[in-house]
From TrEMBL:
Entry-linked PROSITE patterns: GNAT
Protein name as catalogued: N-acetyltransferase domain-containing protein
Classification via InterPro entries: Acyl_CoA_acyltransferase, GNAT_dom
Record-annotated N-acetyltransferase domain positions: 3-146
GO molecular function: acyltransferase activity, transferring groups other than amino-acyl groups
Organism placement in taxonomy: Bacteria, Bacillati, Bacillota, Bacilli, Bacillales
Superkingdom in the source lineage: Bacteria
Alphabetical list of SUPFAM superfamilies matching this protein: Acyl-CoA N-acyltransferases (Nat) (SSF55729)
Regions crossing the membrane: none
Pfam families: Acetyltransf_1 (PF00583)
Amino acid sequence: MGIVIRIATEKDLLPIQHLLAKANLSERGIEQNIDNFLVVEDPDKKVIGTVGIEPIGKDGLLRSLVMASESWNAKVGLDFIELAVSYGKQKGYEKLYLLTNSSLPFFEYIGFRILEEQDVPGHLKDTEHFAQYVEGVTKVMELSTDEI
């Protein structure tokens, strides 16, 4: 049996926190939003990847995308993010946003587009996660779920 991608449960909290700590990403708010996370399990049922979709009104914010480096390859990464985007559409989000300092071509391939700073919506700026935004370094990307 191959990898499994599923909705996270409370028992996944510690492995998710471990992955995020290893990637130097914030663990804030995960406990309260665990049901908005997806996890990737290897054939031994070890959590090797995660991504969260934090609700922000009628939209969602993709956050905390991590795959253990020894488990990552382009196909698994692409399949995982495409599934996360589909999950966001299934949950009824009109737009999905993400903040990134790298991997722009990867997300553009999926359909995300870079927003100019003046176009970043206020409800996204009001999120706790947006506090990690660094002007001139962090890029905000948007995908309308109508385009999926």
